[in-house]
TrEMBL record:
Protein name: SCP2 sterol-binding domain-containing protein
Keyword 4Fe-4S: yes
Organism name: Roseibium litorale
Pfam family, one: SCP2
Comp. bias intervals (Basic and acidic residues): 1-24
Domain 4Fe-4S ferredoxin-type: 182-211
Region of interest (Disordered), residue spans: 1-25
Ranges annotated as spanning the membrane: none
Superkingdom of source: Bacteria
Key words, A-Z: 4Fe-4S, Iron, Iron-sulfur, Metal-binding
Length: 443
């Protein structure tokens, strides 16, 4: 029997011919109705070629190369569990909705397949891709949701839905066909700029002027997630005895880590979402009685006795000590290893501590030699940082370093002093400025 005569091939060819005759652009309204029918609280569509997503397209196509349309969906969380000072209650709500949203996406993909439409569901969770170093997610749900009209980013760096507010989680279905229309960002930002998220953050990661300290948030809130788990492993390996280990980790911390490993990792705070009054469904109590809202929602989180995880010498350390003296602090090490100079340069704005940079105004030129020949200029001025590839027009300090040696120093595997003495790292300029640069990146 020839291949073209095989019963399976004959049936498939027949279906293909029928579909070609009926073929028309994929209905956007049908897609969004499909998402809601399977349990999505809301849905929006955006083409992958949208200019605002240019930087995301290559990552998305790693997951599903045929992607042409992005179906952004959101799942709705119950507000009161997320607001609970008992964070196990809040974390259960996060994880339950993540699981539901993944199931919603799976069912959407399954029904699309029945219609002969190829699609793939991305993963709704954090982190989504654990192969460090590098970006730990492939499909960035937040910018896709904004482009698809599901809301805008709030001061707390999460998407705020116009109706459901901050109490949503996101996922994306990647579709291999074009839709007949797409959505666009909503015309206003639901964020009220009330600064309650700033007041709630126990480590000061959110700033009143809208700035965000990524490393401070990552160090505390994501203490039991991927990156900071390395610190736990290091403590186990380095401990000479059980007594030595218990000097590093309390029994409560060990138990909490066990819970995260056996169930799912728990957020230490996420208070910024808990206190947010934005969105039509959440705003009324805030409008009717602001002092009462603060007393009922914000104060229990501020007053809670808990351990805050901070990097030694970080802005968070001083902020927490002054703002929340009743909360215990524990100094921890930066646990993300830098595997390349590119990773180092990308990490600089994320780990920059602007409080430690007060009074520092200087430009630093880095010239790396060896396996990674890269030149970059880092400007720190007015408590802000700018990293640019290429040489600096004028530099106050010039650093020339062997790339491998520099990474070993950054990863605490080699002494900076030894590297300078052996001229594997050479510093030309004011050494006081060079030391001040290092203080801007604690841990």
């Amino acid at each position: 029997m020839r291949l073209e005569e095989h019963p399976t091939v004959v049936k498939v060819r027949s279906k293909q011919e029928t579909r070609k005759k009926q073929e028309k652009p994929l209905s956007a309204s049908w897609l969004k109705d499909l998402a809601k029918r399977h349990g999505a609280a809301d849905a929006g569509l955006v083409e992958i070629s949208r200019p605002s997503l240019t930087g995301e397209a290559s990552y998305i196509r790693e997951v599903f190369p045929r992607t042409r349309t992005l179906l952004s969906i959101c799942g709705r969380m119950n507000r009161e569990p997320v607001r609970s000072p008992v964070r196990s209650v809040a974390n259960q709500e996060f994880h339950a909705v993540y699981d539901e949203l993944n199931e919603v996406a799976r069912h959407i993909v399954a029904e699309l397949a029945e219609h002969g439409i190829a699609s793939c569901n991305a993963v709704s969770a954090f982190p989504m891709e654990a192969q460090l170093p590098g970006r730990i997610w492939k499909v960035a749900h937040k910018p896709i949701a904004v482009a698809a009209g599901l809301g805008h980013m709030g001061l707390h760096r999460s998407v705020i839905h116009p109706q459901f507010g901050s109490f949503i989680l996101l996922d994306t279905v990647l579709i291999g066909e074009d839709a007949d229309s797409s959505d666009h960002p909503i015309e206003y930002n639901p964020c009220l700029e009330c600064k309650l998220c700033v007041a709630a953050c126990p480590v000061g990661a959110l700033k009143p002027d809208g700035a965000f300290d990524f490393m401070t948030c990552f160090t505390h809130n994501y203490r039991e997630f991927l990156g900071n788990f390395n610190d736990f492993v290091d403590a186990v390996v380095e401990s000479k005895s059980m007594t030595d280990y218990r000097k590093r980790f309390s029994d409560g911390e060990t138990t909490s880590m066990w819970q995260s490993l056996s169930f799912k990792p728990g957020y230490k705070a996420a208070y910024c979402l808990a206190v947010c009054p934005a969105g039509e469904d959440a705003i009324n109590p805030f409008l009717e009685d602001r002092p009462g809202y603060v007393k009922e929602v914000l104060k229990p989180l501020q007053d809670k006795k808990e351990t805050l995880y901070v990097l030694p010498g970080s802005d968070a350390e001083g902020y927490a000590r002054n703002r929340f003296p009743h909360k215990a602090q524990k100094r921890v090490r930066r646990s993300i290893s830098l595997a390349s100079i590119e990773t180092f340069l990308v990490s600089l704005p994320l780990s920059f501590q602007r409080g430690r940079a007060k009074g520092l105004n200087a430009t630093f030129q880095f010239t790396f030699t060896g396996p990674e020949e890269i030149t970059a200029a880092v400007k720190i001025a007015n408590q802000k940082i700018e990293v640019r590839r290429g040489p600096a027009e004028e530099a106050d300090v010039r650093i020339t370093a062997d790339a491998k040696t520099w990474l070993k120093v950054m990863n605490r595997q080699y002494s900076m002093i030894n590297a300078i003495v052996l001229r594997k790292i050479r510093v030309k300029g004011d050494m006081r400025l060079f030391r001040a640069f290092g203080r801007c990146f604690p841990g």
